Amino acid sequence: MSDGAFEPDKYQDDYRLRVLAMIDDKVKGREITTAPEPMAKPGPLIDLMEALRQSMKKVPEKKAAGAPRKTRKKLDILTKKQMSLPKMPANFRQIRNPSAPLESI
C-alpha cells in the first residue's frame, strides 16, 4: 500500500494554526468574530395542490360502480379457525403459575 514510512513534516495542521492565531488575537485584546455562514439559495416553490391535481389527471378513472370485482379463490383465504392459535393443555395455568407448589406440577 505505502512505499515509505509516515512523514509528519509533509503535513500541516491548518485548524490548529487558526485556533492558535485566534488565541493570540484574544490575548492581545482583539475581538474574535466568525465569518457569517453563506445563505442557501432557496429552491423554487411548488404548489402542492396543483401538483396533486396534475398527478390525479394522469391516473385512469375507476371502473363504473356496477362493474364486477375480481374475487379471490377460497383456497387463498385462511379461515379464522385456521389462523387461531393451538389449544393450550388443560393444566397450562398450573404449569405456568410460579406460585404453585412444586408437587402440583
Which descriptors would you attach to this protein?
105 residues, mainly alpha, 4 helices, 32% helix, 0% strand, extended
Report on this structure:
- The protein is built from four helices and no strands.
- The longest helix is centred in the first third of the chain and has 14 residues, at 14-27.
- It has helices spanning 14-27, 48-58, 80-83, 92-96.
- It has 105 residues and is mainly alpha-helical.
Radius of gyration: 38 Å
Q: What is the strand content?
A: under 5%
Total helices: the number is 4
| Unreliably modeled segments | none
- Biggest sheet architecture: none
Structural class: mainly alpha
| Shape, principal axes of CA atoms | extended
- The ordered H/E elements are HHHH
Round the mean pLDDT to the nearest integer and report it.
76
Strand tally = 0
* Percent of residues in helices: 25-40%
| Oligomeric status | single chain
> Kindly, what is the distance between the CA atoms of the first and last residues, rounded to a whole number of angstroms?
67 Å
Please outline the helices and strands:
Elements lengths: L13 H14 L20 H11 L21 H4 L8 H5 L9
Summary?
The protein is mostly helical and 105 residues long. 32% of the residues lie in helices and 0% in strands.
